Amino acid sequence: MTQTKKYCPFCGARIKKRNIEGRNRSVCESCGRTLYENPLPATCAVVFNELGQVLMTKRAVEPAYGEWALAGGFVEIDETPQECVLRELYEETGLRGEIIRQLGVEGEKSEMYVNLMIAGFLIKADSEEPRPGDDVSYAEWFDPDKAPEPVFESHKKLFKIGIEILTVELMRR
Ligand SMILES: [Zn+2]
Questions:
Q1: How many domains does the chain have?
Q2: How many angstroms does the Cα of residue 169 sit away from the middle of ligand 1?
Q3: pLDDT tens digits for 83-131?
Q4: Distance from Cα 112 to the centre of ligand 1, integer Å
Q5: Distance of CA 22 from the midpoint of ligand 1 (Å)
Q6: Same domain, residue pair 67 and 27
């Protein structure tokens, strides 16, 4: 289960497989570069509002079309994970927010993307009215105990951590 390129992204020559450092890696026949393959970085958002409700989105893209998930997406080459999660939240739901804290990093095996690294953030929304945007057909607030479970294992874990923190915070008020 590896994503394999046929041609070198640096010089365009063919790539072959070679055992390097005990792994079957892709190496360029011409320029000799080893093409390391790594998990794709992505982010997800556990978003809450003034009422302590949490935001869930319904996916309008594969993988997991039509399933519930947290807002989020892939980190662009020129942005930080923090910028990524706030941008994705806005693109998918029209909501702006403030990052309260990081929730952790989880792996996610994927048929489409092989392997992902997903950084979760707890975000306080600064408005109340989500409108579904890119990649999302539906976005809605739920009481934490009534929220649908997100489809991805990484989102499940990060969502659970976020809810635990929110619950403790709400009890303090
Ligand atoms: Zn090359």
A1: 2
A2: 53
A3: 999 999 999 999 999 999 999 999 999 999 999 999 999 999 998 899 9
A4: 26
A5: 21
A6: no
